[in-house]
Amino acid sequence: MSKVRAKTYGICGGAYGDEGKGRIVDNLVNDLCKKGEVVVYRDNGGANAGHTVEFGGQRIALHQLPSGVFIKGATVVLGKEMVLDPGDLLTELEAVNKIAKAKDRSKIKIDELAFLSLATHRAYETVLKDWQSGSKGSTGRGIAPAYADVLLRHPLRMRDVLNHDVKKLAAHYDMYEALIKGLGQNLAEVKVVSLAGDLKPVGSKKKFLKNLNEQVEELRPYIADLRTWLAEKWQDKKCAFVFEKAQAVGLDYRWGLYPDVTASNTTFSGIFSATEGLIDPDQFKMKAGVIKATYMSSVGARVLPTLITGELAERIREDAHEYGATTKRPRDVAFLDLPALKFFAKVGRFNALILTHMDIVYENQPVRVCVKYEKNGKNVEYHPDQTFIDQVKPVYKELAPWDTKQLMKAKTITQLPIEAQKFLKFISKEIGVSVVMITTGPKRDQGLILDKKMMS
Predict the structure, then answer these.
(1) Calpha distance 229→227 (Å, rounded)
(2) What is the per-residue pLDDT across 255-301, written as a single tens digit (0 to 9) for each?
(3) 51, 63, 357, 383: the active-site residue
(4) Catalytic residue (choose from 18, 85, 88, 332)
(5) Does the 290-455 domain belong in CATH 3.40.50.10050?
(6) Is 18 assigned a catalytic role?
């Protein structure tokens, strides 16, 4: 059995994404940096993520950079199994540097073995969507084709560009040109989206390779072989580690509502492979799943069994700003689904829960929670398949709402409204994991730690 490493924390989405992970990570890193050095490590996804943090009174959505980037004394790491878009990363760095100068924020490190997600991948995804009606949940960031390259054994890595492997880079363009030609379009003419928001054609091979080389060259100061450095930091027990997962367990290709899933490993187990067996998630002091307390949200083609419609859905969407940080798409909202959340907590190996959006409750409007599924008159468990979920009937329990003004004033768990205390006990008991923290409002300081030992 692995020995638990102190000051080691994992933060993972416990539902379908957009749970508020960025804010939690940012606050945790800020507190830890007051006591010493902190490494913030991200191992999956790419520009499809959208983790919103607040700094200097400004809110910014981070896509590839880990949360904690604004915290001086931290080092944020873009790990080996991320799929990075160099152009978007430069745009993101520019936005960060406008808010905080390099000397006043974290250090940034990029693993030289990180995979690339490029305009070629976005073009292929776009053309494929034109050719068929699938991938409705896609963010258009080329994530799935980039990870498909990994499985097909021909990915591009940061190191390939740094080493000016022209033959390999040209072969990549040629392959996607052929694939897209087979689908009836011309790669050079396909327009793809960027983080800056503009649509531009991929361009000729010469132009594509020139842009890619210039972008990665600009990122060169951040890129390195991180194996020795990471091992030294992991062995240094004074150094705290925070692992930030992108997306959520409910979007994992193994556990989510297939086929509307992402392509990366969204659970803590991905950290073990990304660090080449160096860092074992079983050693983490805290492996927390973040969920919205009183409802769920979803972007994409999946249809949740507890979907909310009408005035209540619109009210929640507006009050909680339920629009995608990356896509800006309005999110579906749904009643809390305990069968799904229990499943995600189990396969995600959570030992803690963090509940956000405790303030999204309304007077005289019970908090409705799905406690079980029925199918053909029999109780059934969550199964990661949309066709199956379409056939289940949710069974609900209603809990009393609470006074949000009292909630926001609370400094201890005993100062919370009694209805909120009962709700937290109910959720913890049903999911089988303790709640260690809640957020009580949208501002950075509106939170309450319920288990200081776990969070310290």
Answers:
(1) 6
(2) 999 888 999 999 999 999 999 999 999 999 999 999 999 999 998 88
(3) 51
(4) 18
(5) no
(6) yes
